Amino acid sequence: MVFFILKRQFLKKNLLEYIKLLTFNEHFISSLFLFAGFITIGFQLKNVFKKSTGINLTTFDTLTLPISQNLWGYIIPFQGAFLYSLVYLKSKYRIEAKSSIAVYLFVILASLFLGGISGVVYLSSKGGNIFQIMFFSFFIICPFLLIMSKWVLNKITIKNKNSIFHKSKQYILNIFEELVHLFKSKRFLMNVFLVDITYVVIFSIWSYWLSLVLGYDIPIIFFLSLGFLMKLHSFAKLTPGNIGVIQLLVAGYFSIFGLDPEIGILISLLQLITNIIFGFPVALIITIISMKSFTNLQSDLLQLIKKKSN
To answer: Based on the number of CB atoms within 10 Å of its own CB, is 131 exposed (0-12), middle (13-18) or buried (19 or more)?
Structure first.
């Protein structure tokens, strides 16, 4: 539905015509930006998992896990990337689901915090209205809402210790404890922010370079602020890979600052095409290679079935 609206309003060419907008060399350069972003995310995951669980991801997984996640985010809507990584890490490293959830939420909250700050600073410098500034200010307080949620949950008393409600409460509290532990280390938090900023810079240079190739001169500072907004879209996956949602979000952001939304749509679509042409085939190969790591999961399931039958 989202993509249908997008097509009706913005798309005037078929897919092949969009591909022809760039030469082969330009498509290849575009893919380098794509994979540089994936590698940056990989090092962030490696850093956060080591801090959270003490487990060191292998170099192969550091470099390839985000690429595989990207593919599964398109195959399975509504957090397919997270579900794939949860199962993969559980099978290969025996990382508990609660630790994966904690890491996932931590990365989101850190990105929301940083995105909120960048949005407020950029809008303030450009004379944004109070409602726009308040919107981004909400993201800044998100990590503090975590502490409040933990406090509220601790106040809830469940008498039956064996009930599913008590067990669910303890499970959520354990996730909160891991999150608070991650946020307490200022040095670690700064490292995460630096990696986040690196990813945004890569995205911004990629978008700025595409705008120049297409013949548009848009300040790179605009793409930096857009980069932080793009980090926020991972918070809610409404379609496979958020196709359509991202393009509408970009179009809206361009419109807010008086720029032609079709330029934003065009740049976003070219980045999507790069992902399809280069990202998907590489991710498929990596997923096939990684299948051997799921043998532990198969044996765990068989043991569970045997226990249930006994």
So the answer is: exposed
